[in-house]
Amino acid sequence: MMVRLAFSILVFAFLLLGFDLKQNVSFTHASAAELCKDCIRIGILPLKYEGEQKKIALYAQSIQESLTFALSSVNSLIVIDRTRMTDIMKEIAFQQSAYANPKTQVEMGKMLGVEYLYTGAIQEENGRLRIFIERIHVATGQIQPIAQVTGPGADLFALQDQLAEQILNHTQLKITEQEKQQVYKRIQETSSLTAYEFYARAREAYSKDDWVQALVDYNRAIELDPKYLKAYINRGIIYYGREDYAKAMEDYNRVLELEPKYVKAFVNRGLVYTALKEYVKAIADYNQALELDPKSVPTYNNRGLVYSGLKEYFKAIADFNRAIELDPKSVPTYHNRANAYFELKEYFKAIADYSHVLELEPKSVNAYYRRGNAYVALKEYFKAIADYSQALELDPKYVNAYYRRGNVYFELKDNIKAISDYNRVIELESKSKLAYHNRGMAFFRLKDYYKAIADFNRAIELDPRYMSAYKYRAWSYSELNMESEAIQDMRKICQLGDKSACDFLKENGSAQ
């Protein structure tokens, strides 16, 4: 008598292959809207430099960072993070020629969600620098010169002070004397122009992914000025990226010894604690950072991610909401909030956020992929297939998207297409037990039992305790009248703890 498996077959599950992509972390109680209802949102571009002196070209980049960091200490200004600026510049292929193209600059301003975009140029002649700044009103495209300074290159820090003062005066905001002093303090973090130049070189090397040279230059900057806070901060970022968390922690601790209220040190140390799974300490650092700077979008975002990791999704969403109030164009924050909504099974809200990400960043592979997952949860399979397909068009080696799309095809009983996608998964990830298992099930449906058995064999080789693979292999053997092999698999299933398999064996006198 052919063995018929008298236990329930596992429901086909949409399992995610491999690890999730990294969440969108960011370096760097009244509601956020109340805190900043009269704030002005601005972005600062690198200065244009058309000469051939490497040192001056580095100044053009570093002045942007110095002004961004310094002006962000003003409570009534929201200054877009330099990393966001760089990402947008890459997205629209912003080159030197774009500085003279107001349309491109306005486009960038709209993508960043700022009211004003600051641009300008630096020139050098006989050791003297001339720096001027223009302000672009994004809504109208109007360009207005607002700052100009001239002086010896050796007086670069004083020139930056003058620039910051002229920019602040032009905003016509009510700025306290304490805020002004904080701006000047941030600009003049080092008194050593040589240390500043090594710092600028390190930043350039880092931007080119030359972390080794960046470390060398940050080390040199710190040797020249052991109290150079930004050099410690950025060196810590490199150590964090290399997963050398002990050294990253040392750098951030050193910054806080020198300056106990340095917000970036708390934010970045929070990331290190998160990586070390010391979540209570991470939250404590983010709390401290928000006490010092209630406008810090990266801090709300990162604390929200910790809450998400702890499955405290309502707290996470509250933090993401605050971040979005402060920066309505923050792609990572919308993405992270969507992920939290997904975990709460609020799929329509998740889809709305993923869709907003795609409005802001149309080539976001991960947004298409995750929105596809949300459509699957709602059983809107054709929309899911469209999103997975779009993700694969953008990234033809996105293994998870092939796997998930294969699952949807399987659910729709389109076994041939499912097998095609599982084939692609196996080409890209040869040790995927899930792909072998699910391809085996598709072959089983097509009554191609030998191929099904071959796939279940491979899944079991990869995971000798893979109960579902044993079950389906037993079923396949049964269909081929291979009774002893089917019974053997039933015994293994019983050993793995499936009571229905044990009961079946007893009833049929096949237990051992």
Could you describe the 3D structure shown?
With 512 residues, the protein is α/β, with parallel strands linked by helices. It has a domain at 39-188: Rossmann fold, CATH 3.40.50.10070. It is 63% helix and 8% strand. It is built from 25 helices and five strands. The protein has helices at 32-35, 54-71, 82-91, 102-112, 156-171, 177-187, 193-207, 211-224, 229-241, 245-258, 263-275, 279-292, 297-309, 313-326, 331-343, 347-360, 365-377, 381-394, 399-411, 415-428, 433-445, 449-462, 467-479, 483-495, 499-507, and strands at 40-44, 77-79, 116-125, 128-137, 142-152. The protein has a five-stranded mixed beta sheet, sandwiched between helices. The longest helix has 18 residues, at 54-71. Mean pLDDT is 88; it is low at 1-22 and 29-34.
Question: In a few lines, what is going on in this structure?
Answer:
With 512 residues, this protein is an alpha/beta fold.
Q: Which keywords apply here?
A:
5 strands, Rossmann fold, disordered N terminus, 512 residues
